[in-house]
Amino acid sequence: MRRKVQVWIVATILIMSMVGSLVLTIMFVPRSLNLDAKDVSVGKAVLPSERDGASAVWDGKNAYLFGGRSGTTYFDQILRYNPSTDTITVMSAKLPAARTYVSVVWNGTYIYLFGGRVNKDFYNQILRYNPANDTIRVMNATLPDGREATSAVWDGKNAYIFGGLNGKEYLDQIVRYDPAADVATLMNAKLPGGRYATSAVWDGKDAYIFGGRKGLTFIDEILQFHPATGSVKVMGASLPSGRDVTSAVWDGKNAYIFGGYDGRLATEDILRFDPVADECQVMNATMPSGRYGTSAIWDGTNAYVFGGVDKSTSFGQVLRCNVRDARSASLLPLLGTVIIVILATFIVIIYVVVRHFRRTRTKDVPPVRTKKKRP
Fold it and tell me: How do residues 53-100 score in pLDDT, each as one tens digit?
């Protein structure tokens, strides 16, 4: 009976040790291992001129890029990029004036553009571009004042425009634009602090706003804006470091954030933000070099990243980023580590058990008594 109890005790210890080893291994494997590098390639198509600060949007078939700059040269061009043919077309229509760092949304029929800047002139205009007939119109509604480097999302009915710089102050404003009524409304909801050069995505229910800058402070916050309640929330996850002039896309499940400037360097990072898990992870895949002031779209299969600058060099590249299929190939090293820990634990426990039973048997065997011979 005593021996059976000992066996059950040892078996329980063994099982608990194996489970504990598994849990500890999973806890201490770095989260950065949970993503595998994916394909990032440079397309054959190049922009007509290298540029940063262009804004891009996807209409279901093509990407359209608006404006931008290269050094002190500002562009009024509208470009069309076709991913299936990897070609760029300069459209006949032009912006009313050259400008950089506008924000854009697509409502299913038209593309709406908000604000922008050329030199020291900040625009409050709202523009409407019709891809079907290549025409552009200045709307009657305007932003509360001129501003650049806002970010914007479309919720199916309204556009929401976040923050920006008006030349004097960094804005914490959220502006709602209703295209049907052609009315721009300054909302009561505000960002936690003024900021510009953010990027934003829409997940079907909420907007997520990434990073930005206020003065010399580079922001690492990820914000959630819920239009139904007008609430703004700072997420638990944050960017790896404060950064501005990123670009971002939404693939139906995650947001991907590209590049940015952290006050010292242009980063080549590609980040993945999962709003359900509230996690932001650095992908193993990177852009060919650090850059900021890019623009990006999602075509349903890949992300395409356009242009950018690295403080001194502007880029005219179009990058194709196959990030959606990122898989946990690093599960292999994870499982290998788990198996090694479990085997090591098992060997140690077997050794201890064997020694224990040997000692027990030694104690249970009665000493051999020798009979004394009578004289």
Answer: 999 999 999 999 999 999 999 999 999 999 999 999 999 999 999 999
Position 366 in a domain = no
- For 9-59, write each residue's pLDDT tens digit: 545 555 555 545 444 444 444 444 344 445 899 999 999 999 999 999 999
Is residue 353 a part of any domain in this protein? no
Residue found by looking up tokens 């300069």 in the block = 90
pLDDT score at 91: 98
Q: Which H or E element spans position 17? A: helix 2-28
Q: Give the count of domains, the chain.
A: 1
Instruction: With respect to residue 338, please indicate whether it lies within any of the assigned structural domains.
Output: no
Total residues belonging to the chain? 375
pLDDT tens track for 211-236 = 999 999 999 999 999 999 999 999 99
Write the CB contacts of 9 (distance below 8 Å, at least 6 apart in sequence). Answer: none
Exposed (0-12), middle (13-18) or buried (19+): which is 190, by Cβ within 10 Å?
middle
| Integer Cα distance of 65 and 57 in angstroms | 7
pLDDT at 193 over 90: yes
What is the band of 350 on the pLDDT scale with cuts at 50, 70, 90? low
| DSSP, residue by residue, 288-344 | SS--BS-EEEE-SS-EEEE--B-SS-B--EEEEE--TT---TTHHHHHHHHHHHHHH
State the DSSP code for 34. G
DSSP one-letter code for 61: S
173-178 vs 183-190, strand pairing mode: antiparallel
In whole angstroms, give the CA distance from residue 39 to residue 81: 20
* Helices 331-364, 2-28: crossing angle, 10 deg rounding: 160
- CATH code for the domain of 233: 2.120.10.80
Residue from 251, 308, 259 nearest 286 by CA: 259
Examine residue 193 and state whether it is found in any structural domain, yes or no. Answer: yes
Burial of 150 per CB tally in 10 Å (0-12, 13-18, 19+): buried
**Domain that residue 184 falls in:** 35-321
Copy the structure tokens of residue 259.
């590049």
Please report, to the nearest 10 degrees, the dihedral formed by the alpha carbons of residues 266, 299, 114, 264 taken in order.
-10
β-sheet bridge partners, residue 256: 249, 272
* Residue 347 burial class via C-beta count within 10 angstroms: exposed 0-12, middle 13-18, buried 19 and up: exposed
pTM, 2 dp: 0.80
